[in-house]
Recover the amino acids of this structure.
């Protein structure tokens, strides 16, 4: 989100808000739900996609990670484009593209087409989603913004529950013989209806002090990430040729060039470097990136092991997400209150609780385990996650000046999406490398354990880094972040 993403609306709507704000928010929430659903619905369908399109391990990883990668890279730029050219206009453009590429995902005839469509779908979401919150802040008066923001948070929680279950249901019942394609094609009619409604009811807003997009910074960070992730994901299938190592080494000077370019551009950079003068923000960004790397990296081998290794049906695999999501819901609100009393240690304990829960899952994962053997530890892991994600964004931004609030928010949100992509790439390589050419149930369990111990170690690092976060948060700082 851009620096002006949280800017106040025009003076005439400051006190009372826009007259169509509530119906507009309802329409915008549909888009938010579609995006969040698409980040959670795919994992359960990966085995079916792999069997249908005969994808290798690399394509499977790209289907899972490609969406979050392009979403992260385009997120800040998408927010600035809305500030500059109009949020409604960019929302409609993003929604139209998201719907189109959802269609291409659903009709993909090869793994390459599906991966390409997923990358473009994520980029479309990066144009669409920043306009949701920016429009909300620009049309609601200050007294109503916290409630509207809470609704968006509720939609996020609902999508995290519905995604795996919806995927399992669609695959189990094989609607119209579509199989896994239905998880993408369902976006098409919903997207078309949302486009029509948004064109009619969402008001146009833009920032009076918009910052031009940093396209050079976006291209540099995209190139640096591609130089790392492409060889990392593709290298195992290709036998790790020399170019994979040269490519990863070449990413270092490109990252250095990105940092130099950002410093030269100052406050209008894609990621203003002055943000990292705050120890709390630097630690918070690292915590968010590493935490979501561990989370996303865990769920890829978990979903594949349940179905391909242990023989769970898609519906059974989807149902196991319920205890985890329930744990998040149970702890995320109390964690916001606890952080005002215990500060950063709420995040420390949350990360350690989750690490312990995942460690127990590693030990217990074996032939014959069922839902009730997994549920208590997934519930505990969800409670740990809620204690981390509830306060982390507020704690990371607690020391940031108000003029940089939008840039800080966009940066840390992009960091968690990038962390997810890197986590899927790294843990996916470890998992598939340990799996071997002719996997059986024993090799699936062993591979799951090998990859997931890395996730546990990463969560311990998150706990250690959390002690660098601000010691306490005031109620005002917490409310500003929400």
């Amino acid at each position: 989100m851009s620096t002006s993403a949280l800017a106040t609306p025009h003076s005439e709507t400051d006190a009372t808000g826009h007259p169509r704000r509530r119906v507009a928010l309802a329409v915008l929430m549909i888009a938010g739900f579609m995006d969040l659903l698409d980040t959670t619905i795919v994992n359960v369908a990966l085995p079916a996609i792999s069997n249908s399109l005969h994808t290798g391990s690399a394509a499977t990883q790209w289907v899972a990670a490609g969406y979050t990668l392009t979403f992260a890279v385009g997120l800040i730029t998408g927010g600035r484009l809305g500030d500059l050219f109009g949020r409604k206009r960019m929302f409609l453009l993003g929604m139209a593209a998201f719907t189109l590429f959802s269609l291409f995902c659903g009709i993909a005839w090869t793994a390459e087409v599906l991966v390409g469509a997923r990358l473009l779908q994520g980029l479309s979401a990066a144009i669409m989603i920043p306009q949701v919150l920016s429009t909300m802040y620009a049309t609601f008066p200050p007294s109503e913004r916290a409630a509207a923001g809470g609704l968006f948070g509720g939609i996020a929680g609902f999508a995290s529950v519905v995604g795996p279950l919806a995927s399992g249901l669609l695959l189990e019942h094989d609607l119209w013989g579509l199989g896994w394609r239905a998880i993408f094609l369902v976006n098409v009619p919903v997207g078309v209806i949302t486009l029509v409604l948004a064109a009619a009811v969402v008001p146009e807003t833009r920032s009076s002090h918009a910052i031009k997009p940093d396209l050079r910074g976006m291209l540099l960070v995209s190139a640096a990430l591609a130089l790392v992730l492409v060889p990392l994901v593709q290298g195992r299938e290709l036998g790790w040729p020399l170019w994979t190592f040269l490519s990863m080494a070449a990413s270092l000077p490109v990252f250095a060039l990105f940092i130099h370019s950002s410093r030269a551009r100052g406050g209008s950079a894609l990621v203003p470097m002055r943000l990292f003068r705050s120890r709390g923000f630097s630690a918070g960004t690292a915590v968010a990136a590493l935490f979501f790397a561990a989370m996303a990296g865990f769920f890829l081998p978990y979903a594949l092991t349940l179905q391909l290794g242990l023989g769970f049906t898609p519906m059974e695999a989807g149902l196991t997400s319920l205890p985890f999501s329930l744990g998040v819901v149970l702890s995320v609100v109390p964690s916001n209150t606890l952080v005002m009393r215990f500060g950063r240690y709420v995040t420390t304990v949350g990360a350690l609780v989750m690490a312990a829960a995942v460690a127990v899952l590693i030990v217990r994962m074996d032939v014959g385990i069922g839902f009730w053997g997994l549920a208590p530890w997934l519930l505990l892991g969800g409670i740990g996650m809620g204690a981390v994600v509830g306060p982390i964004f507020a704690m990371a931004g607690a020391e940031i000046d108000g003029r940089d609030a939008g840039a800080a928010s966009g940066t840390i949100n992009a960091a968690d999406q990038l962390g997810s992509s890197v986590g899927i790439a790294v843990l996916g390589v470890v998992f598939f490398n340990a799996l071997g050419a002719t996997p059986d149930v024993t090799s699936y369990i062993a591979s799951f354990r090998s990859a997931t111990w890395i996730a546990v170690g990463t969560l311990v690092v998150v706990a250690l880094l959390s002690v660098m976060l601000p010691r306490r948060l005031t109620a005002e700082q917490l409310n500003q972040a929400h």
